[in-house]
Amino acid sequence: MTIFLGADHRGFELKEKLKEWLKNHGYTVEDLGAHKLEPEDDYPDFAIAVAEKVAENPEEHRGILLCGSGHGMDIAANKIKGIRATVVMSAEFAKRAREHNNVNIISLAADWTSPSDAAEIVRTFLETPFSGEERHVRRLRKIGNIENSTRY
């Protein structure tokens, strides 16, 4: 599993800390930027880069996005077919998102998430499997049908 990281200026510092944490815990990490603190950068650039890489193998790859609120990154990432991204504010959110929705990208609110909380959220996200329960599979199939529809 490769973990793809992306952050804008507001998520940059937390991304750098998470990148080290991930590497120290044996994960393969690819940082898709920002590679330096640039106050005028735009979160969609990083969200789309991460989402496109995760979409190449959405059941295996994982993405972690960081911006001030997590919302902008989340909205942008979910525009890419095959991506199931959500804003996660706690380890319990991450657990449910993986078990019920098989999310492959999480967005963190760097303005409100400490490095220790972020590490716990990420650990839970990466270690929790999708439940595979029929009701969750059925619901995800419906979402997939929407993605493949020409009516939207």
Describe the SSE topology:
Blueprint (H helix, E strand, L loop, with lengths): L1 E6 L4 H13 L3 E4 L11 H13 L6 E6 L3 H7 L7 E3 L3 H11 L3 E5 L5 H13 L6 H15 L4
Parallel strand pairs: 1-2, 1-3, 3-5, 4-5
- Low-confidence parts: none
- Known CATH architecture: 3-Layer(aba) Sandwich
N- to C-terminal separation? 32 Å
**Morphology call:** globular
Strand tally is: 5
Characterization of this structure:
Helix 2 crosses helix 3 (71-77) and helix 4 (91-101) runs parallel beside helix 5. This protein is globular. The relative contact order is 0.17. The chain has a single domain (2-148), classed as Ribose 5-phosphate Isomerase B, Chain: A. The protein contains 6 helices and 5 strands, in the order E-H-E-H-E-H-E-H-E-H-H. A 5-stranded parallel beta sheet has the order 2-1-3-5-4, sandwiched between helices. It is of the alpha/beta class and 152 residues long.
